[in-house]
Amino acid sequence: MSDKPSYLGLLNAIAVGELGGEVLFNEWAAATPDENVRAVLQTVALREGEHAKSFAKRINELGFSVIPKDDPGLPERCSIAGSADLDDCEKFQRLGFTKAPADKDIFSNFFDDITMDIQTGELMGRYVSEERDTGRMLRSCYAAISAQNGSTTTIEDRLQRIECALAELAAATSAAAPKAKSKR
Ligand SMILES: [Fe+2]
């Protein structure tokens, strides 16, 4: 068996996570009545599935196999994505695809391991770039349907969205607030 690369766990986590993402976005695409939203979700689902396969292939080339892992949060996220009772706006909000990360994103430390080989590094670069682009696509899709819904939703819906936005803002503000220094 080959020497085990120190970044194998990261590759495995990506392969497993992207497979879950493919399921989630396919369920959502099948549930949405909006063809523009469906087009975005199908693109994202294809990317997720391709990422899962590409990382499984790279793990195989390195002499190992993907170790499947249960994601305990996935069933709940999939039930939100496939729900017939929630609209797309609510799904974006509940699944957390409405706003850009305040500072660094979860991919920022994916290149911290300086032993990563060239081929894996190339794959990782494409993967991270596509994930960030996916984030931008989802946020702009959310902005478009929010603007559309703005003219047709009830006042209760709008108040609920304002509450949601305020809660997100409060969370972002408290996360970004500098720690108070003691004057003593
Ligand atoms: Fe992903």
Anisotropy-based shape: globular
Q: In percent, how much strand structure appears in the residues? A: under 5%
Oligomer: single chain
How many discrete structural domains? 1
- CATH top level is Mainly Alpha
What distance lies between the first and last C-alpha atoms, to the nearest angstrom? 59 Å
Helix content: 55-70%
One letter per element, helices H and strands E, the order comes to HHHHHH
- For the residues shown, what is the average pLDDT? 89
The radius of gyration is 19 Å
CATH architecture level-2 label: Up-down Bundle
Number of helices: 6
Structural class by helix and strand composition: mainly alpha
Major β-sheet profile: none
Regions with little confidence, pLDDT below 50 for 5+ residues = 179-184
Give a short overview.
By secondary structure, the protein is mainly alpha-helical. The chain contains six helices and no strands.
What this model shows, in words?
The protein has 184 residues and is mainly alpha-helical. It has one domain (8-91, 114-176): Ferritin, CATH 1.20.1260. Helices cover 66% and strands 0% of the residues. It has six helices and no strands. It has helices spanning 8-31, 35-61, 74-81, 88-95, 118-150, 155-176. Helix 1 packs antiparallel against helix 2 (35-61), helix 1 runs parallel beside helix 3 and helix 2 (35-61) packs antiparallel against helix 5 (118-150). The chain is globular. The structure holds fe (ii) ion.
